[in-house]
């Protein structure tokens, strides 16, 4: 979910994550989620702070109506109930879902790049035509 690839999850990345998990939050709710585990008060989640969510959830230290508790529950799997194979299937399904979303995003990006390339070709053809036209009009 670190789309900025800066090693942190900021407000917008957290928003996207919660939407993809099926538990969208308000802007204020997202800010409160970050604030609840933001140890260095930088307004974003580091990997350590992200793991702190699950530590606090396991210790019962998160508010019942907290978006972080929702996040922890949505990402939680009990290996004693599911077994190792069930946990493996759970995480493989998560990876598959994420990769299919990434494929869709990659397709959109490829289409946008193709449009940009076609527009650049049109500009180059127009410029070449104008140059050729100017040779005949002189």
Automatic annotation (TrEMBL):
Keyword Calcium attributed: yes
InterPro entries: EF-hand-dom_pair, EF_hand_dom, EFHD1/2
Record keywords: Calcium, Coiled coil, Metal-binding, Repeat
PROSITE patterns listed in its UniProt record: EF_HAND_2
CDD domains: EFh
Domain of life: Eukaryota
Coiled-coil stretches noted in the UniProt entry, renumbered to this chain: 101-130
Domain EF-hand per the UniProt entry, residue ranges: 1-24, 25-60
Pfam families referenced in this protein's UniProt entry, alphabetically: EF-hand_7 (PF13499)
Recorded GO MF terms: calcium ion binding; calcium ion sensor activity
A cellular component term, taken from the record's GO annotations: mitochondrial inner membrane
The name this protein goes by in its record: EF-hand domain-containing protein D1
Biological source species: Phalacrocorax carbo (Great cormorant)
